[in-house]
């Protein structure tokens, strides 16, 4: 054995301090974006049945939630609205006093330095549950763009720092950028859901947002999970239309796509650690099958390693607490 030559990689794994010294990928509190589901009404803080630890929260209970978020060192939230009324055109999405607009004003007044991201879509607000105008059973692309731009402008007027359109209509970034610029919001960036697959991992979110389609599915506008080049075309289009961030959703099953997006485009990449990914870990942890902290930290680190600059995750509060 004395003449045997080989590399001793274990030299750099001898202790926790040595491993920390050479660690290549780091997860920080500043990387986390915490999703919130705000609802109309009073004295509401109801757990989402399929998402333990995630709540529907009314404005009168939002103060305590935000105090906790800020005290943990989380710098950014993304707001999803659940309106009391729905209609075919999703009018509450772009109403001046819509739930996301009101929540934005509420939070911004109390925490002006917190970055508020507004999810810009229609599915939570339409009676049919689709992300656009529907005629004869078909989701109309171009007619929907005006409503999306109108929604984005109303959210910016309410104080949103970032607009995050998630609808996957063709041309949505261009329409929203034009609408924001025309309204004088040149400095409000767009965090585009550029790569959004038609995924089975969205079930618990639809429970939380009350956004399950009332007919059909979203495969005509969300992407086929089998496709790779399509993702790059979508990201390219959004960059050309004026996107400032690129979201890859879901994250865990599409780490290969995330790496390619990061390598090809000069923009911050955002991983969306979606509801199904969250709920499966929660269920396994509650049954004692996995160590929740260890598995969450491992999977979020894998997203950073794959190229994510930021991570939207329902685990944000837990992770911030663990990092402390």
What does this structure look like?
The protein is α/β, with parallel strands linked by helices and 324 residues long. It has a single domain, classed as Aldolase class I (TIM Barrel, Alpha-Beta Barrel), CATH 3.20.20. Helix content is 37%, strand content 19%. The chain is built from eleven helices and twelve strands. Strands 1, 2, 3, 4, 5, 8, 9, 10, 11 and 12 form a ten-stranded mixed sheet that branches. A two-stranded antiparallel sheet has the order 6-7. Helix 3 links the parallel strand 4 and strand 5. Helix 3 (99-110) packs parallel to helix 4 and helix 4 (141-158) packs across helix 5 (172-182). The radius of gyration is 20 Å and the shape is globular. The N and C termini lie far apart (46 Å). The mean pLDDT is 92. This is Porphobilinogen synthase. Keywords: Lyase. It comes from Rossellomorea vietnamensis.
Could you give the order of the helices and strands? Answer: HEEEHEHEEEHEHEHHEHEHHEH
State the separation between the terminal residues, measured CA to CA: 46 Å
> Quick one: CATH class?
Alpha Beta
Shape, per Cα inertia axes: globular
Task: Indicate the mean pLDDT.
Answer: 92
Rg estimate, integer Å: 20 Å
Q: In short, what is this structure?
A:
The protein has 324 residues and is α/β, with parallel strands linked by helices.
Name the descriptors.
alpha/beta; TIM Barrel; single chain; 12 strands; 324 residues; two-stranded antiparallel sheet; 11 helices; 10-stranded mixed beta sheet
């Amino acid at each position: 054995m004395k003449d045997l030559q080989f590399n001793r990689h274990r030299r750099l794994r001898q202790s926790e301090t040595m491993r920390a010294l050479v660690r290549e990928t780091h997860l920080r509190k500043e990387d986390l974006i915490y999703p919130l589901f705000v609802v109309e009404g009073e004295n509401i803080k109801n757990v989402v049945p399929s998402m333990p630890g995630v709540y529907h929260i009314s404005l009168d209970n939002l103060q305590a939630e935000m105090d906790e978020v800020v005290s943990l060192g989380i710098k950014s939230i993304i707001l999803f609205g659940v309106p009391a009324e729905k209609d075919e055109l999703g009018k509450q999405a772009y109403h001046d006093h819509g739930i996301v607009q009101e929540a934005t004003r509420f939070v911004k007044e109390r925490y002006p330095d917190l970055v508020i991201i507004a999810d810009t879509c229609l599915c939570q607000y339409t009676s049919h549950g689709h992300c656009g105008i529907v005629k004869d059973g078909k989701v109309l692309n171009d007619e929907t763009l005006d409503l999306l731009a109108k929604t984005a402008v109303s959210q910016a007027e309410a104080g949103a720092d970032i607009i995050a359109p998630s609808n996957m209509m063709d041309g949505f970034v261009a329409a929203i950028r034009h609408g924001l610029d025309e309204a004088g919001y040149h400095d409000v960036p767009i965090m585009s859901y550029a790569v959004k697959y038609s995924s089975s991992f969205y079930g618990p979110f639809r429970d939380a947002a009350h956004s399950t389609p009332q007919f059909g599915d979203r495969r005509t506008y969300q992407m086929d999970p089998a496709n790779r080049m399509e993702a790059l075309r979508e990201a390219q289009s959004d960059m050309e239309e004026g996107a400032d961030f690129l979201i890859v959703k879901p994250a865990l099953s599409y780490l290969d796509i995330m790496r390619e997006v990061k390598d090809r485009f000069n923009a911050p990449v955002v991983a969306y650690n979606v509801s199904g990914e969250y709920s499966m870990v929660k269920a396994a942890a509650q049954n004692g099958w996995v160590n929740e902290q260890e598995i969450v930290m491992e999977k979020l680190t894998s997203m950073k390693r794959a190229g994510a600059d930021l991570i939207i995750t329902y685990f944000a509060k837990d992770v911030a607490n663990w990092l402390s």
